[in-house]
Amino acid sequence: MLKCDVLNMQNQKVEQVDLPETLFGTEVKDHLFWEVVRSQMASRRRGTASTKERAEVAYSSKKLYRQKGTGRARAGSRRSPVRVGGGTIFGPHPRDYSYRVPKKVRRAAVKSALSMKFAEGKLLVVDELKMPEIKTRVFAEFMTTLGVISGLFVIDGQDDVLEKSARNIPKAKVLRVEGLNVYDMLRYEHLVLTKAALAKIEGALGQ
């Protein structure tokens, strides 16, 4: 078992916890990060881009001028893609870009990200994260106390006070443990877990 210090909000060590090697001591596999993050970003695409083909352009289908005798190239319709304002050939249409990678791959990628943060010394465990009122300044001071400039803070459940206190800090994000994902873990330098969130992660991913 791996050991990790548990800190309080004043950055003081209060105890130690055991971390399972199956979650925090596995081999870091970069290719899993690529696969899972690519899937996450594809799922976020709106896919609403749309163009009109020649059948959808609002022009008359009347022949512009007679076929022969004008000295000009023959033309059938203003809707032709070769004319200004005509339809688009093979243009984009609304579509769903999302796709899913296998569950086993997603779980392995999360374990790799957790192991990487622990190996780099960027994993912090705190006994609790509680604030009496919504104060961005107080949360920023807490980050400074921990020595965290860019951090993902994972909590075990809904906490509107904490989430609203952090939402105006560009390099901080408070995330509920159910939403833990590879993209956010890679996006922020430090990963800060509450002790309760750590227990839920261990229960969800298994030892």
Order of helices and strands: EEHHHEHEHEHEH
Shape: elongated
Given the structure, what is the number of helices? Answer: 7
Quick one: CATH class of the largest domain?
A: Alpha Beta
Structural class: alpha/beta
Pick out the low-confidence regions. Answer: none
Which architecture of the largest domain does the CATH hierarchy give at level 2? 3-Layer(aba) Sandwich
Helix content: 25-40%
Q: How many DSSP E strands?
A: 6
Q: Give the rounded overall mean pLDDT.
A: 94
CATH fold description of the largest domain:
Ribosomal Protein L4, Chain: A
Largest sheet features? 6 strands, mixed
Distance between the termini: 11 Å
CATH superfamily of the largest domain: Ribosomal protein L4/L1
Radius of gyration: 27 Å
**Residue fraction in strands:** 15-25%
